[in-house]
């Protein structure tokens, strides 16, 4: 009875030409599969980084801008109402700039790929913004006429910002920050599994080279040597590119987005403190709740927010944060003096201190230094994320080409040896 096809295949695989044929097919397929997997992994990481730069990062920055602009607008308006009649032009211009920036940031956020919750929050904030500006304009109109009703409107506007709009802005910021961190974590991981597979491919190529040396008595096989070098180059390229991308991605998170978060949280509380300080005076004896809130904010800043900002600072921002912290402590001391003047009945002296004295000047220093630190950290985030993507710019094509070259080299290296047995 003639042998079956299976028996022939088994018999063939036990002989040298059959073994070489199996090795050829396996090595070619493994090289092609590894090259495809590595190229797809690089493309995935690059797409994630593109989303971090153009999507998540931009929306997160917009959320920070909304949060800060609303807080600053509230503090600016409160400071403006310390002056009877027409408010100073610089404060009016600053308020208008804050509102313009908040509106622009809402537009940027709305244009991003938002989740359902974030999209709903942006819609709510967009609806509340004209309500807030309307209350402020009414307050201004009454204030110019010297009518105390303006105080009620400015208090209502401040309550709308702090109790509703800032809470919504914080929810938006936290949601988008979480989404950004998840994307950064994905991009900050080296593909160890593929590296192990790549090393195994190299080991397989070397093992086959040794096998050929022993069976054919030839020291080197040119095709397998080229395949080994091509695979080594591809694995090295993948390792270096993904490691550099991961390193830049981690830096963009630690010195960029994480620092922005720490600085922004501190700055927003500083703006709340300034608003409370001004509204306490604007209320003229009825501002106890604002002073109590100032104390709460002071405790939050002293109890951890400023320490977090200092811990998040890099070499580019540490001096700015130190300056802000020193100015804050000076402001707290001068605030006690301001309250002493107001509580003792010298309201005009307290107003003078708040507008032209140490409290106002030191607040300006804290706000300016933290604002500059936020801008630098945001630039660091963007630059490092771009560098991470740049590290992967041509890696997918290069790695794929090298593994295809390795597969072809395996074919041209083993096929002639197989034909020798025919």
Model description:
It is a single chain. The protein has helices spanning 5-14, 16-80, 89-111, 116-144, 149-187, 192-216, 222-282, 288-312, 318-343, 347-356, 358-391, 395-419. The model has no long low-confidence stretch (mean pLDDT 85). It has one domain (16-419). It is mainly α and 422 residues long. It has twelve helices and no strands. Keywords: Membrane, Transmembrane, Transmembrane helix. The chain crosses the membrane at residues 189-212, 219-240, 397-415. This is Secreted protein. It comes from Kibdelosporangium aridum.
Short description:
Keywords: Membrane, Transmembrane, Transmembrane helix. This protein has 422 residues and is mainly alpha-helical.
In terms of topology, how is this protein built?
Elements: H1 5-14, H2 16-80, H3 89-111, H4 116-144, H5 149-187, H6 192-216, H7 222-282, H8 288-312, H9 318-343, H10 347-356, H11 358-391, H12 395-419
């Amino acid at each position: 009875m003639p042998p079956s096809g299976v028996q022939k295949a088994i018999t063939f695989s036990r002989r040298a030409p059959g073994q070489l044929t199996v090795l050829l097919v396996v090595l070619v397929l493994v090289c092609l599969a590894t090259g495809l997997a590595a190229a797809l992994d690089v493309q995935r990481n690059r797409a994630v980084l593109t989303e971090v730069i153009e999507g998540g990062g931009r929306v997160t920055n917009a959320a920070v801008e909304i949060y800060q602009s609303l807080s600053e607008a509230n503090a600016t308006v409160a400071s403006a109402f310390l002056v009877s009649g027409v408010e100073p032009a610089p404060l009016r211009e600053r308020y208008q700039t804050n509102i313009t920036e908040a509106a622009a940031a809402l537009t940027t956020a709305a244009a991003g790929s938002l989740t359902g919750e974030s999209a709903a929050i942006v819609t709510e904030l967009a609806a509340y913004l004209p309500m807030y500006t309307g209350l402020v304009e009414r307050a201004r109109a009454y204030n110019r006429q010297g009518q105390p009703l303006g105080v009620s409107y400015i208090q209502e506007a401040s309550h709308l910002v702090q109790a509703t709009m800032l809470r919504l802005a914080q929810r938006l910021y936290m949601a988008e920050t979480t989404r950004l961190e998840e994307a950064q974590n994905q991009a900050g991981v080296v593909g160890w599994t593929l590296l192990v597979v790549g090393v195994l491919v190299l080991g397989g190529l070397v093992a086959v080279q040794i096998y050929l040396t022993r069976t054919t008595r030839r020291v080197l096989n040119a095709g397998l040597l080229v395949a080994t070098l091509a695979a080594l180059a591809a694995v090295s390229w993948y390792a270096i590119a993904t490691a550099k991308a991961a390193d830049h991605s981690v830096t963009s998170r630690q010195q960029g987005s994480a620092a922005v978060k720490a600085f922004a949280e501190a700055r927003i509380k500083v703006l709340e403190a300034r608003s409370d300080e001004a509204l306490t005076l604007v209320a003229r004896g009825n501002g106890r709740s604002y002073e109590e809130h100032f104390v709460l904010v002071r405790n939050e800043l002293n109890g951890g927010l400023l320490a977090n900002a200092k811990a998040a600072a890099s070499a580019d921002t540490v001096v700015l944060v130190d300056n802000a912290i020193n100015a804050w402590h000076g402001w707290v001391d001068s605030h006690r003096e301001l309250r002493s003047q107001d509580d003792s009945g010298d309201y005009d002296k307290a107003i003078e201190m708040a507008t032209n004295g140490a409290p106002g000047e030191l607040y300006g220093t804290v706000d300016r230094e933290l604002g500059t630190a936020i801008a630098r950290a945001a630039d660091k985030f963007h630059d490092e994320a771009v560098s991470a993507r740049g590290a992967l710019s041509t890696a997918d094509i290069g790695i794929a080409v090298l593994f295809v070259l390795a597969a072809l080299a395996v074919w041209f290296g083993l096929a002639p040896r197989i034909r020798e047995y025919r």
